[in-house]
Amino acid sequence: MKIIDGGVTAAKGFKAAAAAAEIKYKGRTDMAMVYSEVPCVAAGTFTTNVVKAAPVKWDQDIVYNHPSAQVVICNSGIANACTGAEGYGYCKETADAAAEILGVAADSVLVASTGVIGMQVPIDRIKNGVKMMAPKLDGSLEAGTEAAKAIMTTDTKKKEVAVQIEIGGKTVTVGGMCKGSGMIHPNMCTMLGFVTTDAKISKKMLQEALSEDVKDTYNMVSVDGDTSTNDTVLLLANGLAENPEITEKGEDYETFKAALNYINTTLAKKIAGDGEGATALFEVKIIGAESKEQAVTLSKSVVTSSLTKAAIYGHDANWGRILCAMGYSGAKFDPEKVDLFFESKAGKIQIIENGVAVDYSEEEATKILSEEAVTAIADVKMGDATATAWGCDLTYDYIKINADYRS
Q1: Coiled coil located at which positions (predicted)?
Q2: N or C terminus of the chain with fewer C-beta within 10 Å?
């Protein structure tokens, strides 16, 4: 696997564009378009929230009931959630506008929105944005980056990544972009993710690869415990790499899955590290677990603990909060066998052994916890299963950002 510069335009045949449509923001781009030169097979995963935004319902219909997709249109600022039949109608109007100007079928146009819940999108501005973007579609890396910037809301940085692999003697590229900063919680955090590839793969295998991978990537991220109405990950494959089509599990499928996992893991960590008001990415690794399920439960419990997140912000090795969070997770383990370590670029230090504090240096622990990425490693000594969850510290700025989000 080769890591390369780029995002959604890295793979052959994909183009992107951005526009300042003034959906909610002024002085910045707030709409993005991703377009494939040829129809793609599409896969998707969506929020588990019972309250689903109109774009989620629209995309589920296309992904599940239609053979192909070719365009993604995303706006930031207004979520088009809790907007009833009118909001769903605006998804169709957006798709119709794109279909007309791009010469594609309306049921091959996926839509996505992010922002304030409960407001109707200004459909005239949305359609104008579509008209502005269509002539600007470009396959350059810069165009992909502009698209990644346009979908941001409270994000402080664009999020994109791309890799290349070899399948059947052909170079296959996988690239992606996402947005996510707040209202992030496991089972599809509040995030939009768009992944593109020129791999030739069946729709069935593409969906299976994505559905399996989100379990260990996006579903292992939490910033604040809120699961959004709009969470969507879309994966488009246009086959232009001309590799032998992947139609079943095997070496080629595993190679593709490894590339997809790298893309999704990287984007998931970018979301966690850019949590609203965050100063640090907080990673929790559970090792020595009896089962994968146990490890996942324990890691998620720690990464979502507000008290632990606050301690990470204070660079405080308050290990009792971590053991406490493991204890109320519902997973069975022996607290008197747990070893706990903190690790970062500044080093690694053991904090407890067999459930009891060791004689460690608070000064060294604080130094390790003062980095931009911090990892807590808990060994429960019950087996060989592991899991990793990602979150961030909890800061004063999280409250400031969300107290006046609508204004």
Answers
A1: none
A2: C
Region 114-125 average pLDDT: 91
* In contact, 108 and 39? CB cutoff 8 Å: yes
Catalytic residue among 190, 232, 297, 388: 190
Average pLDDT, the chain: 92
Per the structure, the complete domain to which residue 33 belongs is given by 2-273
Annotated binding site: 153, 179, 190, 276, 402, 407
Tell me: do 37 and 130 sit in the same domain: yes
Number of domains in the chain: 2
Last residue of a domain, one of 223, 252, 273: 273
Q: What's the average model confidence in pLDDT over 99-118?
A: 94
Q: Are residues 332 and 387 in the same domain?
A: yes
Q: Is the pLDDT of residue 403 over 90?
A: no
Classify residue 20 by burial, with Cβ atoms within 10 Å: 0-12, 13-18, 19+.
middle
Rounded to the nearest angstrom, the gap between the alpha carbon of residue 193 and the centroid of all alpha carbons in its chain is: 5
155 has pLDDT over 50: yes
Give residue 407's pLDDT: 52
Instruction: Identify whether 190 is a catalytic site residue.
Output: yes
* Shared domain check, 56 and 87: yes
What's the CA gap between 295 and 288, in Å, rounded?
8
